[in-house]
Design goal:
2 helices; alpha+beta; 39% strand; Double Stranded RNA Binding Domain; OB fold (Dihydrolipoamide Acetyltransferase, E2P); 2 domains; 211 residues; 5-stranded antiparallel β-sheet
């Protein structure tokens, strides 16, 4: 009975660039299910994974499962590839119905298709992240909606009607004691543990309408 073989490569033996000779600098784990391990398949997967690492350099880890769960009357085994990429803040997974996606009698075709799908998902993720960073780094316009001076924090009403938390330490030029409800401010926004928060707040004026 064929078992499960796991081959783990934590780091290349010799230091090298991120893509030199097709190795990743990040942890990669390869698991075979229903088939014996293959050095040639391992090499192909490492090469494909290294290209993903170049495409998006914030990948923290890569796990790949090579599986042959289906045997058909007129076909041999259909190879199915699952890819799990660990990214900051979550995971990206390529794993769909092996009868329809990323499955082939040719293991190398299945690997190619699965990694092509992973590359597309990474590109989409990178585009969304760039858009988020651009949005958050842009100075926004709002006014002080609520102040809790005894607790050193408050809330800004943004020009689009949202309330954004800010702390005394985020107010530039030590201007927190000068703030009053209705004061006009410029601020940059970031995602905090409890939702959106202002990373920097600059006092612009007092009681001006938001444009």
């Amino acid at each position: 009975m064929e078992g499960v073989t796991v081959v783990r490569y934590d780091h290349p033996v010799v230091p090298m660039s991120r893509c030199e000779e097709g190795f990743m600098q990040l942890p990669i784990q390869i698991t075979f299910r229903g088939i014996p391990p293959s050095a040639a398949i391992e090499s192909t997967i490492r090469d494909k994974a290294a290209k993903l690492d170049v495409l998006y350099d914030r990948i923290m880890g890569c796990r790949v499962v090579v599986e042959a769960p289906h045997r058909h009357h007129h076909q041999g085994k259909l190879y199915h590839i699952r890819i799990d990429l660990t990214l900051p803040g979550g995971e990206l997974v390529v794993n769909r119905d092996p009868a329809q996606h990323h499955a082939s009698e040719d293991a190398y075709v299945a690997i190619r298709d699965a990694f092509d799908a992973a590359a597309r998902q990474l590109e989409n993720h990178a585009r969304r992240r760039r858009a988020d960073v651009k949005t958050h780094e842009t100075a926004l316009h709002g006014r002080v909606a609520k102040l809790f001076t005894e607790h050193d924090y408050g809330f800004i009403e943004s020009s689009d009607g949202r309330e954004v938390y800010f702390h005394r330490n985020s107010v530039l030029d030590d201007a927190f004691p000068k703030l009053a409800q209705g004061d006009e401010v410029r601020f940059t926004e970031e995602e905090g543990e409890k939702g959106p928060q202002a990373s920097t707040v600059r006092l612009v004026g007092k009681h001006h309408p938001i444009g």
